[in-house]
């Protein structure tokens, strides 16, 4: 299960997903903080491995205070996911992803 954690303002590393074989993509966001975290989950339909990949779009946005958001499922393929934050001064926010590649 791919996981990425963000501990400062900005963008996390992207997570490449199986956009050819996966049928669904489910993600969950967890915050560990003593304050408030504003975060966004962004997705792309283009391979993030391509140098000109700039097609990131917002799929989820929330304000968390030591809680969990999700899970949220997409029934369409996604090529990549990443976290962004504009307010993360004390704590972390974690994105966990699960993909189903059944027949």
Secondary-structure map:
Elements: E1 3-6, E2 10-11, E3 15-16, E4 24-33, E5 37-44, E6 57-64, E7 68-74, E8 80-87, E9 91-100
Antiparallel strand pairs: 1-9, 2-8, 3-8, 4-7, 4-9, 5-6, 5-8
Low-confidence stretches: none
Give the end-to-end Cα distance, rounded to a whole number of Å: 19 Å
Shape: globular
Structural class: mainly beta
Assigned CATH architecture? Sandwich
The helical percent reads under 10%
Q: What number of structural domains do the residues give?
A: 1
| E-strand count | 9
Number of helices: 0
Per the CATH scheme, the topology name is Hypothetical Protein Tm1070, Chain: A
* pLDDT averaged over residues: 82
What's the story with the biggest beta sheet? 5 strands, antiparallel
Strand content: over 45%
What is the CATH first-level class name? Mainly Beta
Compact overview of the structure:
This protein is mainly beta and 103 residues long. The protein has no helices and nine strands.
């Amino acid at each position: 299960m791919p996981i990425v954690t963000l501990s400062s303002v900005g963008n996390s590393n992207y997570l490449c997903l199986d956009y050819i074989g996966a049928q669904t993509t489910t993600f969950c966001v967890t915050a560990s903080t003593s304050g408030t975290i504003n975060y966004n989950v962004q997705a792309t339909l283009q391979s993030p491995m391509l140098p000109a990949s700039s097609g990131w779009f917002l799929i989820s946005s929330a304000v968390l205070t030591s809680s969990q958001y999700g899970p949220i499922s997409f029934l369409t393929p996604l090529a990549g996911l990443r976290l962004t934050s504009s307010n993360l001064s004390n704590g972390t926010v974690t994105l966990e992803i699960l993909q189903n590649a059944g027949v």
